[in-house]
Specification:
Order of helices and strands: EEHHEEEHEHEEH
CATH superfamily: Gcn5-related N-acetyltransferase (GNAT)
Oligomer: single chain
Keywords: Transferase
Number of domains: 1
Shape: globular
InterPro entries: Acyl_CoA_acyltransferase, GNAT_dom
Radius of gyration: 16 Å
Structural class: alpha+beta
Strand content: 25-35%
Protein name: RimJ/RimL family protein N-acetyltransferase
Domain N-acetyltransferase: 15-182
Helix content: 25-40%
Pfam family, one: Acetyltransf_3
Length: 199
């Protein structure tokens, strides 16, 4: 692993982001099965049979210093409810991408995603001293695009025929970013949103 990305646990009152290990396999299978997420054609959520290979790939990227993969543990009940990652790490240009994110159906439309993004963005800008953070999704994934835009990220453009999907089709990838100068305002925005979820 590079000296830039190091294993770290990030947490707040809503979630804990723990470094991914092979020991999380069964909990991730359970999370992905909540909603049979692998059937969503515009995402890349592994099937139960493919989870071990998915974890191995994420750990290989982490070992090479290109990523830091996390499981998402919901504080409310202690359950692992998904995965997320810092990836495409570029220490020279101080850039990283937040992505490879999916959540169990029961964790969607809750504070979980906002809390995860707040923790990851805070780590990226305040600890890693990033100049910019990217977020990417399928052009046709309207829910993901709306969630990214609610964060305050700006649209950079569309990479057409960017990546081949499991079904052989090509994905048009929509690229958003947040730059360091924008982070203080976005941080206040996210803290405000999360405040509404604290009883």
């Amino acid at each position: 692993m590079s000296a830039w990305l190091q294993p770290v646990t990030l947490e707040d009152v809503h979630v804990a982001l723990e470094p991914l290990t092979r020991a999380h396999h069964d909990a991730l299978v359970e999370a992905a099965s909540d909603g049979a997420l692998w059937n969503l054609w515009f995402t890349s959520v592994p099937t139960p049979e493919g989870m071990a290979a998915y974890i191995d790939e994420a750990l290989a990227d982490t070992a090479q210093g290109a990523a830091q993969a996390f499981v998402v543990r919901r504080k409310q009940d202690g359950r692992v409810v998904g995965c997320t990652r810092l990836g495409h790490a570029d220490a020279v240009n101080r850039r990283v991408e937040i992505g490879w994110t999916w959540y169990a159906a029961s964790a969607q439309r809750s504070a979980v995603n906002t809390a995860c993004k707040r923790l990851l963005l805070g780590h990226a800008f305040e600890t890693l001293q990033c100049a910019a953070v990217e977020l990417r999704t399928h052009r046709l994934n309207r829910r993901s695009r709306a969630a990214i835009e609610r964060l305050g990220a700006q649209l950079d453009g569309v990479l057409r025929n960017h990546r081949r999907m499991d079904d052989g089709s090509y994905r048009d990838t929509v690229v958003y970013s947040i730059i360091d100068a924008e982070w203080p305002a976005i941080r206040r925005h996210l803290d405000h949103l999360l405040g509404a979820h604290v009883s």
